[in-house]
Please model this.
Amino acid sequence: MLSGNGLKLVIQAAYFVLIARGLRPTDYGAFVAVVAIASIVSPFVGMGTSNLIVRNVARDRDSFSRSWGNGLLVTLTTGAIALVLVVSGTFLLPAHVHWIVLLLVAAADLIFGRITDYCGFAFSAVDRFGATAQLNVWSSLTRLIGLGVLIFLVRRPTIEYWAATYLVATFATSAVALVWGLKVLDRPSLKLRAIWPEVQEGFFFSVGQSAQSIYNDIDKTMLAKLGDLAATGIYGAAYRIIDVSLVPLRSILSAANPGFFRAGHQGGIRETCVYMRRLLPKAIGFAVLVMIGLLIFAPVVPHVLGAEYARAVGALRWLAVLPLLKTIHSFCADALTGAGHQRLRTSIQIAVAVFNILINLWLIPAYSWLGAAWSSIASDAALVCLLAIAIAILARKRQPVQAIMEEAIL
Model:
């Protein structure tokens, strides 16, 4: 996973430089805002079946065929519904961003992108992490190739051109992923009676992931609406660099995901904490190195992306602490999920998402991208504290206190 995501990191870096140089900060800001809207709804596509296939197979290998088939059906159905809902939300965008951009990006992310993601989870469920890593690489590579061709044909492409290219590239990857999965994995089967119970259970995974998308991405949409697109482009560029720096962390979490479920099945929260403590110290050490690197090399950004992104240096330095905070709360959150406390995790994430929206309403109009950066730091720090408190309480008591925590948070 690390080697595959390392290659993806290089590809994404080239892709990011091309799109930042190919689009003006205002156009890039508009694209970031559109992607942020889709990312909030995206977790509801599949209704958590991507997480459930990993959990189910980690506990019972024979459940793969049924989980694989049911998950594909739910992903396609909910993806179409989500597309309709998102396209109806054009009022969230600045007036001069055409609705067709939202349609193209939403179709890419909510249908074809989610199919690729689900196929990756299916490969991971049977410990074929190499295939998952290859899908991640192809996903970025097709977009890089598409963007390169677009810039070759149109020297200064508009956001509409890029949205269309984004859709075509995402579709190509999803087609390869689906054909590959159907060819080499067990034949998918349908057990319709099992869909509704799993959708009910997976709903909490979806809500939690959507809440995570809100406190990660809603600030970009709010910045575009309450501030201006140039500031959104500056802030979005800095946040994109943070996302890229977290690729190795996501590799570890992806590989560790089945282990968290197995540990939780064997010994609950205490066993998942033992499993987490084996992995967390090295991950924190890596995050600290990333933070130092971001602080030192932030002035390089305008030389790579262009002079228009000079203000991204300050934004990146403010956001440099996020890799450390995200590393800690990602492991804590997976420890809760592996032990069967997904509802508690979701409740905490909802609380942080609401907190993020409220302080953005205050900070963004007053301080523009700087206010968005402060709200991101405050939200991630709050998430670390709440998850740590929840784990400490659960680990010290034998009886579940999930209901008490949920009541206190909500």
